[in-house]
Amino acid sequence: MFKDRDIISIKDLSRKEIEHIFSVADKMEVLLTTRTECSLLEDRILATLFFEPSTRTRLSFEAAMNRLGGSVIGFASPEVSRAGGVFAETVEDTARMAEIYADIIVIRHPDANAPVKCAEAANIPVISAGAGATSVGTAGILGEHPTQALLDLYTIKKEKGKIDGLKILLMGNVTSRASHSIGLGLAKFNTHVYLLSPEVPHLSKVLRESFDDAGLSYGEISRVEDVISEVDVIHIVSSRIATKSEKTEDRYRIDLNKLKKAKEGLIILHPLPRLDELPTEIDNTPYAKYFAQARNGLPVRMALLALISGKV
Ligand code: CP
């Protein structure tokens, strides 16, 4: 079912397949918590091709591969490879080189099409580690971050015990690749999504079409306070970079005051890194699940690597 698959978009995965990834991730979690040595991927090499900065995604993919007994090669910036500098070798040629040396490629790139180009050029599985730049109101292809959506959904499932029936607030730059992918992922479950973003009420036509095509149930709101007593999950990302402002506008921030009327059991997720939209005063509250979310990247990415390698 998964062997040799590319993971380019969360849309490529059915609900059943996502649930299967979660069940394998649960087994990986046992390996991690018991610190059991594992040699499942000892004959496999992962190439990490990062054309943009990353902390969580690159390190968790590399840790996942290492925990499964595999090896990792790659670069953390095009500038330390021939994909940068005067040669600026194409994604396709870079992919052709990676397939000579490795068994799976993980790629992050500012071009939303780069993972597809990479997968077309290479005859080994390609996983997108986030691709596509975003900007408020811009038409064009929206980026995606499919494995981020998987670990976000996995975190919701673990923390809330279910995904169906939940109400989720996506706030901040909702055209970001992380928000786009979690929206598409939530569309596979029986959820309702509220959007609170500088893009609202001028939500990008491209994002609207993407969410409509996916069958996402969503509505747009203008204040956290209007839905805080009914939402089960807040998924917040920075809007400051997209709006090019020095300080996040108050309505796109979370703070303790806004959480006073929060629904019992509310959880707050953030793909991180954060800016001032998520102040550290939230970190020690029961709502804060964003560090657990980052940690969940490990079993989820271990599961994906093992499944794509045909080893589970
Ligand atoms: N969430 C996420 O993609 O983080 P990094 O940019 O650090 O990989």
Give the topology.
Elements: H1 15-33, E1 45-50, H2 56-67, E2 71-75, H3 91-101, E3 104-109, H4 114-121, E4 126-131, H5 146-160, E5 167-171, H6 177-186, E6 192-196, H7 205-214, E7 218-220, E8 233-236, H8 240-243, E9 267-269, H9 290-308
Helix pairs in contact: 1-9, 2-9, 3-4, 5-6, 5-9
Residues 54-57, 130, 148, 271-273 line the site of phosphoric acid mono(formamide)ester.
Bound molecules: phosphoric acid mono(formamide)ester
Largest sheet: 5 strands, parallel
- Structural class by helix and strand composition: alpha/beta
How many DSSP E strands?
A: 9
Q: What percentage of residues falls in helices of 4 or more residues?
A: 25-40%
Strand portion = 5-15%
Molecular shape = globular
Question: How would you state the average pLDDT, rounded?
Answer: 94
How far is the first residue's CA from the last residue's CA?
10 Å
Structural features:
9 strands, about 35% helix, about 300 residues, globular, alpha/beta, five-stranded parallel β-sheet
Describe the model:
The protein has about 300 residues and is of the alpha/beta class. Helix content is about 35%, strand content about 15%. It has helices at about 15-35, 55-65, 90-100, 115-120, 145-160, 175-185, 205-215, 240-245, 290-310; strands spanning about 45-50, 70-75, 105-110, 125-130, 165-170, 190-195, 220, 235, 265-270. Strands 7-6-5-8-9 form a five-stranded parallel β-sheet. Helix 6 links the parallel strand 5 (about 165-170) and strand 6 (about 190-195). The termini are close together. Phosphoric acid mono(formamide)ester (CP) binds next to helix 2.
